[in-house]
UniProtKB/TrEMBL annotation:
This is Zn-finger protein. Keywords: Membrane, Transmembrane, Transmembrane helix. The lineage of its organism: Bacteria, Pseudomonadati, Pseudomonadota, Alphaproteobacteria, Acetobacterales. The chain crosses the membrane at residues 79-96, 102-123. Pfam families: DUF983 (PF06170). It comes from the Bacteria. InterPro entries: DUF983.
């Protein structure tokens, strides 16, 4: 994985050509870029959107031109989402089981949909936060890295 610290030419995204890769030192603080990513906002400017659809990262911010698609989060967001959902659902499952001793069918009817909904609800914000983190840390792939 090659880290990129220079200008990368990309196709225009939503009518805006990708600008130079932001210098991590001049970007907002880490909590700000992660928070913007959580809210589906460009980690650099806070104005443009990170996603085009549910999980597809836009090639570049339509406001500032930051090359967001070079921050390829890959497997980190699903892993972190599973970790978070597991830490929420498993203790709750244990508490309900110990307090009420419901049947396996009732437990399945409650916790399978709950787990699915939580995972789907958290995946997009977690991926946005990961894009922000990767931009801040300068962990970007070049187009030739595939």
């Amino acid at each position: 994985m090659a880290l990129v610290h220079s200008h990368v030419d990309q196709l225009p995204a939503h009518g805006v050509a990708a600008g130079p890769i932001p210098d991590p030192a001049t970007m907002p603080p880490l909590p700000t870029v992660i928070g913007r990513g959580l809210r589906n906002r460009c980690p650099v400017c806070g104005e443009g959107h990170v996603f085009d659809g549910y999980l597809t990262v836009v090639p570049a911010c339509d406001h500032c031109g930051a090359p967001l698609s070079l921050a390829r989060a890959d497997d980190a967001p699903p892993w972190l989402t599973i970790l978070i959902v597991g830490h929420l659902v498993v203790p709750l499952l244990y508490i309900v089981d110990q307090a009420y001793s419901p049947s396996l069918l009732v437990m399945s009817a409650i916790f399978l949909p709950l787990t699915t909904v939580l995972a789907l609800a958290l995946l997009r914000p977690v991926k946005g936060a990961m894009v922000g983190l990767m931009l801040k840390l300068g962990m970007l792939k070049s187009e030739s890295d595939g």
